[in-house]
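Hey, can you fold this one?
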Amino acid sequence: MPATAIEANFDGLVGPTHNYAGLSWGNVASKTNIRAVSNPREAALQGLAKMKRLADRGYVQGILPPHERPHVQTLKALGFRGTDAEVLATAARDNPVMLAAVSSASSMWTANAATVSPSADTHDHRVHFTPANLSAKFHRSIEHRVTGRSLKSIFADDAYFAHHPALPSLSQFGDEGAANHTRLCASYGEPGVELFVYGQAAFDESAPAPQRFPARQTLEASRAIARLHGLTDRRAVFAQQNPAAIDAGVFHNDVIAVGNGHALFYHELAFLEEERTLADIRARLERTELAAIRVDEAEVPLQDAIASYLFNSQLLNLPGGGMMLAVPGECREIGTVSAYLDRLVASGGPIQAVEVFDVKQSMRNGGGPACLRLRVVLTEAELNAMHRGVILTDELYERLTTWVEGHYRSELSQADLADPMLLDESRHALDELSGILGLGSIYDFQME
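Sure. Predicted structure:
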């Protein structure tokens, strides 16, 4: 008899240095809004409001903390010398792009934090976590150490949880975490099929690959994670993302496909070998039939899907059956997408409701609702074994709202990143936050 399990969503709390530096080549929204003035306070409050709405609906909603930024330790490791204030000043003068990189609040997109395999799928029946190395982008490649500390602090009981280090930070093992991974199943507590989507095979020069933008996930990385998590061939499917979609700006699979339960919602141009991908899933899926919800290019052109982040939405079970699609507001601003959503709900398929969430501050940097969350399937025993201080309650929501309003700036420009006061403000805020969440010392400055 399979254990009863739920899917918890762990959202990344937007950090105090949320800004628009345009660091992500291949992410169209990120480049479009480069050097715009951001509002970290509004961004964090938008993220908290999204979490609260889902928690109020009965979903288990957790929080992952932001990272220390600007990360002065990285600058010092790259040869910048002096006091923290001197390091920031020198970097701003000599290499402002590098300063922007170590100031990025990109850890807010926790779909990239790690790959998680539920205990129902793994060889030792523990929940397995592997932080993503994010080696394709310098500003993200420095995240996995603190991500690993956070996950180990939250999921500390090794009777239930297993933690692996990030894969080697090399292009051949580029790993972008759950943004290129989804799970399909009859119910959360039963063995499922984990779909790993990759951009290219790094060790096969003759294999198809994008030509304009980089493929951030490799087949080699996906296979390595499946081995680390003890997934048999029955539990894993490996599919290549369509290179043409990557070159059009679909930098992660979760920008063009999302799955939940027995449903896979995807664009016509999502996979290089669509029929083979679906056949591989169907051959492994147990006690249910795959509901493949295909969106044709004629219905929603790829560029409209990218602009609206239609597929970077959260697909959630409804209490009475069926599913809800939690979409960004942009989906109702683009005619083809809005009309499609109306037809989708009226079609009588698995997706029975659409709800709009305002995450505009995140969207301007190229991240929708699904980018902001890491899905973790947990049995009742595993839920009880984890650290509960990060689960959102009414009390914690009020406390975090007050914390944001007291510590975050309402405007942040690229010039502000060199302000030593911003560093002090951020460290003070994060030190207080780690206490609020009960995570202990997870930041470098707390360990010095």
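Confidence is low (pLDDT under 50) at residues 25-31. Let me know if you want another pass with a different chain boundary.
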